[in-house]
Amino acid sequence: MKFIYEAILARIADQLPEIKYVDLDKGQFEQERPSVSFPACLISLQVSNTQENNRTNLHKQLMVSFRIGWDFSGNTSSITPEAARLDSLAYFDLIEKLETAFQGWDDGTRRFNYFSQMALREERRPDIKVISIPWKTSYHDQK
Question: Quick one: fold of 2-142?
Answer without folding.
Answer: STM4215-like (3.30.2000)
